[in-house]
Amino acid sequence: MCGIAGYIGSKNINDLNVQRTLNLMKNRGPDCQKFESRDINDNRLLFLHSRLSIIDLDERSNQPFEKDDLIIIFNGEIYNFLEIKKNLIKKGHRFRTNSDTEVIIEAYKKYKENCVNIFEGMWAFVIFDKKKKTVFFSRDRFGEKPLYLLELGDEIYFGSETKFIVSLLGNHVDLNYDKISKFLVCGFRSLFKERSSFFSGIRELPPSTNLVVKNNFKKNEYKYWSLNYRPKKINETEVFEKLEELLFNSVKLRLRSDIPLAFCLSGGIDSSSLVAITNKLIKSKIQTFSIIDSDERYNESENINEIVSFIECENTIISTTRNDFINNMEKIISYYSAPIPTISYYIHNQLSELIKQQGYSVVISGTGADEIFTGYYDHYLFWLYEMRLDSNFKQLIEEMKDGYGSYINNPLLKDPNKFINDPSFRDHLYQSSDVFKKIVRKKIELSFNEQPFCEDILRNRMLNELSEEVVPVILFSDDLNSMMYSIENRSPFLDKNLVEFLFSIETKFLIKDGFQKYLLRNCSKKLLPKSILQSKKKIGFNASINSLMDLTKKKNIDWLLSDSDIFEIVRKDKMENILKSDFSKNDYSKFLFAFISSKIFIDQQKKIKNG
Q1: What is the pTM of this model?
Q2: 71: burial class by Cβ within 10 Å (0-12, 13-18, 19+)?
Q3: Per-residue pLDDT at 319
């Protein structure tokens, strides 16, 4: 895991901007920092790299890495690099390091742009081909590793973080107020509907995308991989056998490291299954880290204690606190150069800090399980729609009512027939946005935009969450939180073969006997205690705004309403009224956190602009 940045164009980036950018990149890679520049006819190429050493710790693997006619800067991990390397050696390729970086170079030599099709991992890399005078950008399938671009005519600035681009540019970049406004009204689900950033003109290279820049600055940007629901006939026994094989293989690949690993343990089936599988694979003590909230809705301490006892792993716990909330927010947002999208990732940042303090630089988490196994309450209702013609449908309804239905607090999802009566209903996803839009000065379009991937409405919802609404937000925050403390984050559920398989089996297999995540539970049935396997209540890695800030104190209300450029976006009088609301409600809690996060971000950027 590392930081990358660079420039292609006719300018000479001055040394001050280069050094300032490398300083900003230090967190992403404290072990080595280097830069290289090359001529491309009348243009200049600048590559910056900051290394966090995980595989082949020797300096021979430092970057920019040059071999023959190729130079690469790379952020991420190619988990199956040993298998690829072995195959390339058979084809006559020679290696001088034990790194996955050199494997990318050799694979590119053999397969050119198609090399990405054989990679299993997370990556953002840029390769300069000196012979062809081309620059090749690539980003992994799910977008685990970030890559931002600013294109100004025949110039491209790029980097792992937006602030690297701003630093190389040497000029202030205006904020994207439209994105902030939509975030306040529609919440985190709106953030990656488009791949714009919080800075005008700076965008992400989308996941699963390659970009080739040729000598004449002609660009070719294209998707090299896509996911859809393509069901195949396969029986339940075969499903379980194949799923177990793929899941164990994914975890095994992600355990490859030349330094120790740790695990985030929330207490749910996702992170618990990863710890349990690892326990079976390595047969040694595993270090886990958890965070507990005082709000009973988000407190999973009972489950955590049971898993730790059952697996006999090490566990370190911290609790959410109101101490230094605003100061902590300011520190994190300063690193992000963006608002923190959700409360979950404020508390995840505290967990990341603890993990680093305990000496770990690689952590494994359960990102993506909800979106591939059915993890949200509305998934059950979408599934019931798809099962509406089943001969046992009445029994399926009763199973839902007796189980997950009893835990649903959202009044919009109480009715099991919700989507059967109205398949297009999505109001629960932007809940209370009609209230929040009244406080924003800009008119926000509230019609919900859902991409039509397939006709199965459950799978279509899951694909939207995986590609646009939820997983991109998690990965954005996972990356920044871990990199803030020089940690690499790995997500075994985001494995190409695993995800493709899960979207090739019939929807009917996803839920059974009243249990969501039925497939994952079944794969873990010999590895976890029954209480975890049979728990139907979804708690999630979350907290309430009331656990972080005392909204009864006048000084806190005064701070929320203090002078800020956010009131160029938000109507101050309307905000005063909102602050009288009940923030124990999840949607109001999320809104207030988004407001606080955006306020701090805007104020910090104003200070930077004014020097």
Answers
A1: 0.96
A2: buried
A3: 83
